[in-house]
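Hi, here's the filled form for the chain we discussed.

Project: internal
Contact: R.S.
Residues: 97
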Amino acid sequence: MSAIGHCGNCRARPSPADTVVDCPLENLASDVATGFVFDGFDPKDSLGALRRGFALWNRAKEWKQVQQRAMAQDFDWDSAAAQCVELYRRAVDASTG
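And the returned structure, exactly as it came back:
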């Protein structure tokens, strides 16, 4: 999966799926889609993701929105560390609360 100049395309497991939100119509309408995900590890599943990508490519405005949303995501270590600290803090608060 890459967010450098294009929408991502990844297999759902193992991880880049943690960073890519698939592009069905519901996710496009909700402005959360960032790429194309496929579950199985066979040509049929990956072909479905490619077809969704080609279909979206023909909708230039939505393609650009998905592309920009994917490129705007922040996956640096500082953000990840801050999320881990917050999760740990909430766990400690819940166990002592």
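Let me know if anything looks off before we file it.
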